[in-house]
Amino acid sequence: MGKTKWMAALGITTMLFGSLLAGCGGGEKSEKANGGSKQGEKVEVTLAGWGGNPSEQKLLRQTLDDFEKKHPNIKVKYEVIADQYMDVIKTRLAGGQGPDVFYLDAFEAPALIETGALEPLDKYVTDDFDINDFEKPMLDAFKGKDGKIYGFPKDYSTLALFYNKKMFEEAGVEVPKTWDELREAAKKLTKGKQVYGFGVAPELARLYYIAESKGGKVVTDNKASFADPKVVEALQPIVDMHLKDKSAAQPNEVGATWGGEMFGQGKAAMVIEGNWAIPFLQDTFPNLEFGTAEVPMINGKKATMAYTVAYVMNKDSKKKEAAWELISYLTGKEGMKTWTSKGYALPTRKSVAAELGFDKDPLRAPLVAGASYATVWQNGTNLPIIVNNFNNQFVSAFLGERPLADALKEAEKTANREIESK
Amino acid sequence: MKQAFTKKMKRETGTAYLFLSPTLFVLLLFIIGPIVFAIFLAFHKVQLLGTMSFKFVGLDNFVRMIDDTRAKIALWNTLKYVAIVVPCQTMLALVLAAALNAGLKGEKFFRIVYFLPTLTSSAVLTLIFMWMYNQNGLINRVLESVGLPTYNWIGDPDVALNAIMIMNIWATAPYFMVIYLAALQDIPDSLYEAAELDGANAWQKFWHITVPYLRPVTSFVVIMGLIGTFQLFDQSYIFSAGSGGPNNSTLTVVLLIYQYAFKTLGTMGYAAALAVALAIIILIATLLQRKLSKEESLY
Prior knowledge:
The complex is a heterodimer. Helices cover about 45% and strands about 15% of the residues of chain A. The N and C termini of chain A lie far apart (about 65 Å). In chain A, strands 1, 2, 3, 4, 5, 8, 9, 10, 11 and 12 form a 10-stranded mixed beta sheet that branches. Chain A has a two-stranded antiparallel sheet with strand order 6-7. Chain A folds into 2 domains: about 45-155 and about 305-375, 3-Layer(aba) Sandwich (D-Maltodextrin-Binding Protein, domain 2); about 160-305 and about 380-420, D-Maltodextrin-Binding Protein, domain 2 (3-Layer(aba) Sandwich), CATH 3.40.190.10. Chain A is an alpha/beta fold. The longest helix of chain A is centred in the first third of the chain and has 34 residues, at about 1-35. In chain A, a hairpin with a 2-residue loop joins strand 6 and strand 7. By secondary structure, chain B is mostly helical. Chain B folds into 2 domains: about 5-55, no CATH class; about 60-295, MetI-like fold. Chain B is about 75% helix and about 5% strand. Chain B has 13 helices and 2 strands. Chain B has a two-stranded antiparallel ribbon with strand order 1-2. In chain B, a hairpin with a 5-residue loop joins strand 1 and strand 2. Chain A: Pfam families: SBP_bac_1 (PF01547).
């Protein structure tokens, strides 16, 4: 009697344990089955990225279809991570479940490269991949301290001045060529609290090139140095435009979520935005007449920001050969041409840019022109901490709660303390 | 005889544990394990990405908190939030419950209407509120039409946290209202009848019968409220797009933990230390509450 009871208990327990373990182990097993890339067997490569708009999705799908046609033994599983992209990627990489190939913003690249989670790509590169065809600053953004290349930039965007043609005509202003002209124009274009001359995004990602325009540095030796009087002097006009002239406002002050929306709704006559704003404005506000121009000069020098994103490979990937095939196609001349053909993003290959002729497109020419003198949005491994503190305090100065110099001094102190205790 | 008894006992306990083992295994793996691991992390410098590394640093992570300006701001914001939201939602819940228990017409209908906010996920609720809080949104329009000042609810550091407070009080009070409603049904009518004979008015009945009788439930509601509000995360996360801005005004402790854990690389250990510290703060607050309400019977 006792024995049978024991047996029953043991049996049930084993069964429950077994099913539990089976549930846990299932994923790994199937992974292995896919991973063994035997000849003739289909290899599935996972590619992760953020969404983008539907037209962009369609373009990427088309590029991937072309790739699959040319490489019948490789299947691409495309995953969209819609929200908090980097958090998801980091968590998945740490858990050993990272995708084989994924998007990486230049801003996040140095820190991620340093952890050793990415595969260096130099050894895969062949001559016909033509590495010298890339715009150098964009390629350099994905080089590690060891000089190896960890990613190939898929595209980039620079900033340009977007202006509302109708408002400019009514106010009788010319498109500004310098920041002084912009400030004067903004005053004339402002109509109380209904229309602001200039829509500002008070964040470092957009202000970096302005901050450094007077010779100061935002980051020195991987530490914050933006309390430099030269940086304060360079940024002061932005704060003054908001508080003294009352000709500039940030999007949330007029109930918009970003500059493009504020501009499209006619609440700002000028904004400085990137390539992404063009299709957005054309789709969402088809009746809006707008033009683009190069960002006004500061101190007689041209300056703008460049943002770039690369395809990188997971170091733990079990299908590195196939993953490289995918990266080399997507960033190769053919794939990049398909991907950038509609102008949602600008090609990082000079040959592709020349072939597609975006430098002659009236709306995109100022953006393309910016590539040669733009500051790439990236600086060392501590930039995320620096940005966070800068943005927090800059907003308080922008809203007039305290002088800019004080705000930046405190932000710098906090940022550096965080960096030191890391 | 005694010997046999213990033998039988032993065997039965063994069987019991055997049957329990799947559940125990799950508990260990998914609840006890992570807690132990979090405490372990709190004493280490951790690098999870790429080459994984754990370095024992003793109390360094805890010492670091003393110097962390943002941790102080986060704690201050959280305390302010707890101190305002918990009393407000408790009182609102009690008043709502008492009103709905008074035997009004259409009582059931109002119970459903009041309970509805609780059913919506807090993320969706936050998005709806952000839309209403918009500079040209519903709330400002209403304020304007009755001649009250309007605010930049989301963008102004002075009001952003208050905006979240209002939203949260509105959303969680109904949940506690239901608990109060259930407790109200338990109060014997004879007490009210006796009070009426003594000439008590409605207010006196509420204050001298209802409130004291509900004390154990109030204690429960306050403790759950404390725990919930100390853990404020999703609302301020969505409100500030994960930054805790504008100007750190919506930065809460849990949001800060999230930022250290996932936004900056290599600070997982510090994040775990913050989490442990928060757990201790919640524990202390709960114990204090119990001490103050002198209510031991419920737990």
